[in-house]
Specification:
Chain A has about 110 residues and is mainly β. Chain A contains no helices and eleven strands. The chains are: A mainly beta (about 110), B mainly beta (about 110).
């Protein structure tokens, strides 16, 4: 069965304290792995798509990496405005996209 | 980036009534749209895949007679919650596929059934 897990469930960082979020997946025929950011009461905002092991993408303080079994979202020197829930999703067959439970990030000034 | 608009953003209705939620891709055509449901502090649960001009594909456990999906044009998909009950109260989010692997989400619609 296709499955996506994320850890930790919640993460609290001091401003400037770098860290990583993990996304582990089990899916047959991975066609893509996505990272989204979601603010309370809003729809997810697209961040990155990764397609193959070894691929990396960067955007401002965020960097996403992909292996055959997991992906990491590295946050370098986070700021309070980076506080949000970060969702990982995988695209399996037939464009079906399965979301993980998310990591709630709080960055304290 | 591509824009997906969802309407209404909030709706309150009485138990037993039906509610329609619209999902529009504003600056691109989407042959495939997806409907998700999100419970408080939980992730998105895929409800169904909506394909333009054909019947929607529902995920296991989702009642197709309760959640009617219509994808009548390349820019519009609708979700109708029929005979809504309090347990249908939730945050419903749609997404539209711009290209393989590129999904853009609407802002979501919060449904409250009294």
């Amino acid at each position: 069965e296709d499955q996506v897990t994320q850890s930790p469930e919640a993460l609290r960082l001091q401003e400037g304290e770098s860290s990583s979020l993990n996304c582990s997946y089990t899916v047959s025929g991975l066609r893509g792995l996505f990272w989204y950011r979601q603010d309370p009461g809003k729809g997810p905002e697209f961040l990155f798509t990764l397609y193959s092991a070894g691929e990396e993408k960067e955007k401002e303080r965020l960097k996403a990496t992909l292996t055959k079994k997991e992906s990491f979202l590295h946050i370098t020197a986070p700021k309070p405005e980076d506080s949000a829930t970060y969702l990982c999703a995988v695209q399996a067959a037939y464009d079906k996209v399965i979301f993980g439970p998310g990591t709630s990030l709080s960055v304290i000034p | 980036g591509a824009v997906v608009s969802q309407h209404p953003s909030r709706v309150i209705c009485k138990s037993g009534t039906s509610v329609k939620i619209e999902c529009r891709s504003l600056d691109f055509q989407a042959t495939t749209m997806f409907w998700y449901r999100q419970f408080p502090k939980k992730s998105l649960m895929l409800m169904a895949t909506s394909n333009e001009g054909s019947k929607a594909t529902y995920e296991q456990g989702v009642e197709k007679d309760k959640f009617l999906i219509n994808h009548a044009s390349l820019t519009l998909s609708t979700l109708t919650v029929t005979s809504a009950h309090p347990e249908d109260s939730s945050f419903y989010i749609c997404s539209a596929r711009l290209a393989p692997g590129e999904l853009f989400f609407g802002e979501g619609s919060r449904l409250t059934v009294l």
